[in-house]
Structures are given as structure tokens and as C-alpha cells.
Amino acid sequence: MKSLYTLIFSCLVFTVQAQFSVGHISESYTDPARANRSITCEIYYPADANGDNVPVAAGQFPFVVFGHGFVMDYTAYGNITEALVSEGFVMIYVETEGGFAPVHNDFGLDLAFMADHFYDESANAASPFYGRLEDRCAIMGHSMGGGATWLAAATSSSVDCIAGLAPAETNPSAIDAASSVSVPAIVLSGSSDVVTAPADNHTPIFESTASACKYFVNIIDGSHCGYANTFLESGSLCDFGEPGFNGLSREEQQQVTHELLLAWFDVYLRDNAASNEVLQLYDEMQGNTETTIECAVAVEDYKGNIVRVYPNPGVNELVVECSQSSGAHSFALSAMDGRRVMEGVLLPGQSRTIISTQALASGIYLLQLPAAKPVRWLKE
Known about the structure:
This protein has 9 helices and 18 strands. With 380 residues, it is an alpha/beta fold. It is globular, with a radius of gyration of 21 Å.
């Protein structure tokens, strides 16, 4: 059950979005670069009324391309569909490679194709999505589809962020592909997953990812199949891989999943800074997760210099890197109540300055640099 704090925080972040009904359409797309390969998709979208082939609601919406797990299909993820589409996201379930001998490389290329080319639907007067898509896109997947998400992100030219639910190692290797993935990435990992062991799958994918900002969320006692609906609800075979599982309930795991995904996509597909606080403080809002965050925040100062601030969150030190090292630059670090707790000068002639934060209490601070947007920094 949500704590009162979680409820208040969720209301602050998400009530700005209307609650939409869920429309559905089945479509096939053709990739001319791969011998006119047909890519079948089930698409769910914000609408004014539930149903098949109903009009898309007024407005423009970011979209999420989703890769299913091994021998699973879109019906298994009805909970994710409802959670995201009702908040104004278009969900595109790629239904290729659904048999017992899937080709992972083809699946990854299918996800990348849909991420790169679905934008065109907004300019196609014959499409139901004409004028209804924002120029923002994510790729997400579960298990096999999670690994394929990293394969796709390594080749896609337009994806803004990715998310993996228990991402599995693939052939070719998702772990190897991760070194070519630079967009923001989040991995959700159940600590009691016996189908894709975190140590052999989720963790090395996360560690190999080259993103400047990446999150690893350990869902304590979470399962491999808890992200999806049960066999009775959807016919998914996933549960047969975890017989007798008695860890975190499916309801609790899905609640965590929905809250984190909504916050993640709200930040990286809608630029909602308030949701970033949900991500950074989520472990404090309930007791089912342990989150590792590796982020470097980049801002541009008045001279056009790119300034990177990391690690964020951090503990005993804060590193500030400038793309140009000439001259001295002042800095100030303030608490959220406005108190200035530290100030100084970034070292002239050096591109990298280390600021000791050991004496500071845990909490959120604002780092102010000359003529640049303040950077929100969390000390753990």
C-alpha cells in the first residue's frame, strides 16, 4: 500500500496529466532495408473512449516501443498499457519473434525501426496518428525484449531513453551492445528472479551501459514475471518458469514498476524536473527498492562552455568539469531552504575541480555556476 508521502508526491507530479481512455489498433509496417520485412504491432493510445480503432485524443503524445519476453505477447502487459496510456503515452508492442526460436538480432532491429520511423505517422495525413505524436520516443522491453532494447538502442538514431524490465542477455550480446548505448537508461531487477539471474543479466547490462545517466533499481524479493499479468489473466507462459514463487506480491511489484516508469518517462520524454525527484528519492518513499544512480548532469554557461557535474547522487565529493579551463569561475552550493552552505572558486587553468562535501548533511542542494542554470544535486 502506498504511504501518505508517496500519495502526496505522486499527486504533485502526475495530476498535471489528464486521465485518458485507451484506444487500440493493429498495424503492420514494412522495413525496406531488410527485404521488406513486415513488422506487426499492437498499438494502444490515449483516446476519449475505450475501444478498437477509436480516434486518438486531441493533443500530442510521446511514444514507447515495447519488446515482449520469450513466448509472450502484448496481452501479458495489460497493466503497463493501462498505467502508461492513461497518462498520455502511446504504447507500440512489436509482435515479431514470438515463437520458440526467436532471432534476437532481428527483434532488436524491429524495435529500432519502429522507434526511428513511427515519427513519420504524425506527418502522414492517412494515419490515425496524424498530428498526434511528439518528437520524443523510448524503447522498453521485458526479459528477451529487455535485452533486445539494448540491441535496438545501440543502432537507433532517434531514441531519447530506454527501460529494461529484467533484461536478459541475448545473441548477439546485449551486454556488449550496452557499451554503444549513450541515452538515459533504467534497469528494473527483481532480487528473487530465477529466470534471468540478475548477476548474469541485469547487472552486467547496467554496468556496461555507456549512458551519462543510468539507474539500477533492485526490487527486493521481486520476481521475473511480476511485471506482467498472470497466466489466467493473459495466457502468458512466463509463470511456468517460476513455479511456487512466494516473494513480493505481483500487485506490489507492478505498483513499483508503474510508479518508476511513469516518473522515468515523465523526466526523459516530457522534461518534467519534478519527477526526477521521485526517481532520486523513491527508495525513501517506500521499502521495496534499492536504487543505484550514476548520473552526470551537464549544463551550458554563458560562454558556451559545457559543464558536467557528477556523481549525482554523491557522498563525499562533487566533481565539476568544464569543457574550457581558462579563467576562474565562482560556485555556490545552497540547501533547499535557501541557506548558502558552501562557496568557492573553480580552479583556474584546470578543467576538473573536486569539491569536498564530506561535512554536508544528506539532502538536496542547488549548485549555482556563473550564468548557468542551477544544478540540483543529491547527497546520500
